[in-house]
DNA sequence: ATGTGC
């Protein structure tokens, strides 16, 4: 696209928006016929240049769904997605509203966990080649990857029901792991009967695999502390080595989404719901169709939590073997684990009244503030850890749920840098090997299944994560605690 | 994101 065209597009975007303040832009209901509420974009002026008309229209489309509350919202990492944007937050009334798989995404409970160690940067950097190689061998990655690790059908059912609680009980972890996890590692009420045989068949051999695309396992170090009090509560210090795991529910979640989209396509007709785009297929929240999807989604979410738990367990084994010390001696404790593709039934204040709503977070992270009862006890005084992975080779951030998240965004923040360029285009225009060499010069060892993944995930095809994080920080939605710099990356 | 596209 020429610069001139780009500028034209940008001005076209803001023309139809109402600026509320430095970081909030509203899409008035006059933008399109049928909007029940306005849209709301959390974007700085700089990031406004990263979005296009189509993205604004997707946010507006979601505002047309029945029973949507307050605003159809978009976080600063927003970009085009299936029906709903990635970076979208939408809450629905349980009586008037709907549940939609498009508002969750295909990769149910794609998410991030952060494991601490008591190693220092200097303990790890000289060994990055061998550590990344060992991790790469231990943790299967890539599209369609399967491991030697096998679960039985009964174990799969247990995982669908109990997530990482099951994984820890089965021996893949320690007790504190589930304590330091969003929803304590599982969503209550998953119903394996709503998960089809195909999803089971795809999910079984993929347990304990990383996947591909933007999923990664990364060895990092803390290079900056912004908030010493919160950092102390989280157990983070400058120079400390951490391990971040970013992955989801693999083929299982994907198939659950695909299967239920079919049912919900029918439901749109059955319940005569006016949807501007069939990718927004949904059903009334209390209908059997919606609840069946929701119960299957919980199984997908639980699968993902168990998956990240198992991968962390193997990471510990690799570190234990390499350093000749056990998990306890190496301080390999889970800091936290967040879902960033999920719908949750939560209590929020709407128009001054408390009510139970279905919050859809698609490419958005829960960010509950200090004092919220769902923040684990040990973090309750500072707020929930909000983990924001960078794109490959760029910094990740630890934030804390901010004081304004409940009033501004149904307790939600951004989830990452956000793509600027589509996968296909990136694959065509980027050179994976060259990027790998450049990252090596920056002191980052990347071990990947194939070079094309590195091209797809090149840092330059993403927004700048600092810019994204600064918006939620300025708004008091989630506030910066620490910055993490990668030194070793495993990619599918 | 994905047993990777019409």
UniProtKB/TrEMBL annotation:
What's the catalysed reaction?
A: a 3'-end 3'-phospho-ribonucleotide-RNA + a 5'-end dephospho-ribonucleoside-RNA + GTP = a ribonucleotidyl-ribonucleotide-RNA + GMP + diphosphate; a 3'-end 2',3'-cyclophospho-ribonucleotide-RNA + a 5'-end dephospho-ribonucleoside-RNA + GTP + H2O = a ribonucleotidyl-ribonucleotide-RNA + GMP + diphosphate + H(+)
Q: Which domain of life does the UniProt lineage start with?
A: Archaea
Q: Which PROSITE patterns match?
A: UPF0027
EC numbers for this chain: 6.5.1.-
One Pfam assignment: RtcB
Sorted keywords for this record are: GTP-binding, Ligase, Manganese, Metal-binding, Nucleotide-binding
GO biological process terms held by the UniProt record: tRNA splicing, via endonucleolytic cleavage and ligation
Q: Where is the active site?
A: 415
Per its Swiss-Prot or TrEMBL entry, what cofactor is needed?
Answer: Mn(2+)
Q: How is the cofactor bound?
A: Binds 2 manganese ions per subunit.
Listed under subunit, the entry gives: Monomer.
Protein name (Swiss-Prot/TrEMBL):
tRNA-splicing ligase RtcB
């Amino acid at each position: 696209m020429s610069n001139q065209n780009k500028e034209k597009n940008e001005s076209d975007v803001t023309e139809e928006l109402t600026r509320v303040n430095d970081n909030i832009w509203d899409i008035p209901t006059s933008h399109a016929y049928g909007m029940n509420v306005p849209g709301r974009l959390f974007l700085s002026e700089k990031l406004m240049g990263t979005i296009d008309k189509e993205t604004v229209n997707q946010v507006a489309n979601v505002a047309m769904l029945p029973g949507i509350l307050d605003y159809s919202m978009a976080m600063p990492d927003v970009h085009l997605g299936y029906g709903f944007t990635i970076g979208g937050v939408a809450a629905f009334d349980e009586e008037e509203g709907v549940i939609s798989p498009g508002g969750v995404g295909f990769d149910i409970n794609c998410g991030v966990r952060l494991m601490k160690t008591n190693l220092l940067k200097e303990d790890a950097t000289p060994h990055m080649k061998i550590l990344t190689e060992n991790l790469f061998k231990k943790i299967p990655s890539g599209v369609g990857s399967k491991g030697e690790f096998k679960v039985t059908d009964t174990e799969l059912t247990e995982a669908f029901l109990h997530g990482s609680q099951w994984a820890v009980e089965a021996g893949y972890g320690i007790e504190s792991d589930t304590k330091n996890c969003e929803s304590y590692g599982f969503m209550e009420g998953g119903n394996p009967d709503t998960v089809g045989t195909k999803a089971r068949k795809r999910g079984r051999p993929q347990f304990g695999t990383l996947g591909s695309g933007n999923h990664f396992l990364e060895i990092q170090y803390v290079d900056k502390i912004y908030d010493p009090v919160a950092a102390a509560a989280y157990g983070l210090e400058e120079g400390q080595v951490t391990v971040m795991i970013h992955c989801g529910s693999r083929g299982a979640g994907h198939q659950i989404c695909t299967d239920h989209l079919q049912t919900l396509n029918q439901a749109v007709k059955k319940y005569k719901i006016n949807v501007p785009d069939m990718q927004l297929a949904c059903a009334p929240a209390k209908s059997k169709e919606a609840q069946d999807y929701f119960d299957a989604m919980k199984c997908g979410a639980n699968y993902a939590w168990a998956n990240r738990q198992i991968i962390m367990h193997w990471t510990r084994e690799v570190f234990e073997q390499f350093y000749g010390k056990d998990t306890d001696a190496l301080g390999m404790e889970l800091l936290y684990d967040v879902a960033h593709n999920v719908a949750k039934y939560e209590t929020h204040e709407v128009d001054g009244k408390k009510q139970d709503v279905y919050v859809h977070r698609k490419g958005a992270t829960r960010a509950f503030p200090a004092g919220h009862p769902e923040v684990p006890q040990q973090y309750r005084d500072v707020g929930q850890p909000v983990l924001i992975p960078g794109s490959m080779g760029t910094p990740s951030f630890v934030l804390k749920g901010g004081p304004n998240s409940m009033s501004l965004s149904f307790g939600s923040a951004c989830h990452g840098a956000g793509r600027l360029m589509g996968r296909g285009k990136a694959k065509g225009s980027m050179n994976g090997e060259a990027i790998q060499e450049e990252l090596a010069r920056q002191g980052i060892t990347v071990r990947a299944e194939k070079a094309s993944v590195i091209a797809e995930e090149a840092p330059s095809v993403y927004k700048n994560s600092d810019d994204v994080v600064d918006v939620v920080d300025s708004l008091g939605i989630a506030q910066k605690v620490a910055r993490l710099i990668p030194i070793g990356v495993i990619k599918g």
